[in-house]
Write a structure and sequence with these properties.
By secondary structure, the chain is of the alpha/beta class. It has a single domain, classed as von Willebrand factor, type A domain (Rossmann fold, 3-Layer(aba) Sandwich). The protein is built from seven helices and 15 strands. Strands 5, 6, 7, 8, 9, 10 and 11 form a seven-stranded mixed beta sheet that branches. α1 packs parallel to α4 and α1 runs parallel beside α5. It is globular, with a radius of gyration of 20 Å. The N and C termini lie far apart (47 Å).
């Protein structure tokens, strides 16, 4: 691979304006975080109080302005679960299997779902985002059956260029979904059933400084968009153990740290698994039971904590701040958004 095809693919990826950030526009200082707290077995930890949690912003303790515990369907507004059926980044056989596994999950407990669920069908024609949510798993299964697999229509569906097309389609769909969910109240768990899109990173993929700056602005914009919409993203690999041990099941971990400058940007920074982990979600890629993996993801709706804090001003434009939540109990893990991009006081909204 040479620098030229990487640049051409980048142009394709960045041609979508949905997640582009407008210069000079920033958040208000208040930031809301959804925090999942689990024990060693992965079960939710209940009964925590504000004093049990410590919020770190760039490793410095910050005052928690508000705190509340949310429990499942009792949360107000209730948590919404959005399932993305990815027909772009998986084979027809894998898509067929993931649909059957999703159907199995929807029909558990006689089709009575604990949370409002909607299904997004993502094909080469785009993402079909629905305003309708339902707790009726049987009705959702019927909708799943009515929406048959779309034929892949990308003109470059193989190799480096084809991977670039799929990245562009995938990021466009994610930006569209975040934009839609930002209009709805409450927390959303977006479970994307997919092996993920190509990371396209390595010593043979070279980006120009202009390419890196464009990609960095897209990363900042998409990070802000997902945070504003209160989206926690999850990746469930429908290939299961068939994908175990392959490069994509672990290579994404090289890109989990937040990108602080455009000079450090690589395509891997916008990988599905990376975005899911950074949002506080999970990456599940070692099981053939998608229905069980799906249940693990939506279990985060059973109990979680919502806190807010005043973000710090940035030392410059798009200043990355790493976030961490510590719990004053042994053997307990907290998952939340990995960070945010702060702006200097001078460019904040009045």
């Amino acid at each position: 691979m040479s620098a030229r095809p990487a640049s051409l693919t980048l142009f394709c990826v960045l041609s979508c304006p949905l997640w582009a950030r407008q210069a000079g526009v920033s958040d208000s200082r208040a930031i809301t975080l959804d925090v999942a707290v689990t024990d060693k077995s992965g079960d939710p930890v209940l009964g925590l109080q504000q004093q049990d949690l410590t919020l770190l912003d760039n490793k410095q303790p910050q005052k928690i302005l508000s705190f509340r515990a949310a429990e499942g369907a009792k949360a107000d507004p209730p948590v919404e679960v959005v399932v993305v059926v990815d027909e772009v980044n998986a084979s027809f056989r894998a898509v067929s299997e993931e649909r059957q596994q999703l159907r199995n999950f929807l029909q558990r407990n006689g089709g009575q779902l604990a949370w409002p669920v909607s299904i997004v069908f993502f094909s080469d024609k785009g993402a079909i985002v629905s305003d309708t949510t339902s707790r009726d798993g049987k009705s959702l299964s019927a909708d799943l059956d009515e929406n048959k697999n779309g034929l892949r229509t990308s003109t470059r569906s193989q190799g480096f260029y084809g991977a670039g097309d799929r990245i562009s389609l995938s990021l466009r769909a994610l930006g569209q979904l975040a934009e839609h969910e930002a209009t709805r109240p409450g927390r959303k768990l977006v479970v994307w059933i997919s092996p993920g899109w190509a990371l396209l990173s390595g010593p043979n993929v070279q980006l120009t400084s202009k390419d890196q700056q464009q990609l960095f602005q897209s990363i900042v914009g998409l990070s802000d968009q997902l945070r504003r919409a209160r989206v926690t993203l999850y990746d469930v690999d429908p290939l299961g153990v068939g994908d175990a041990g392959t490069l994509r099941t672990f290579y994404y971990k090289e890109f989990l740290k937040g990108v602080r400058t455009s000079k450090k940007v690589q395509f891997g920074n916008v990988g599905l698994q990376v975005l899911a982990t950074q949002s506080g979600g999970l990456v599940l890629n070692s099981s053939n039971n998608v229905a069980d993996d799906f249940a693990k993801c939506v279990a985060d709706a059973n109990a979680f904590y919502v806190l807010s804090f005043a973000s710090l001003p940035g030392d410059g434009p798009d200043d990355y701040h790493a976030l961490d939540v510590k719990v004053d109990r042994p053997g307990v893990v907290a998952r939340t958004r990995a960070g945010y991009y702060a702006q200097p006081e001078a460019v904040r909204e009045p």
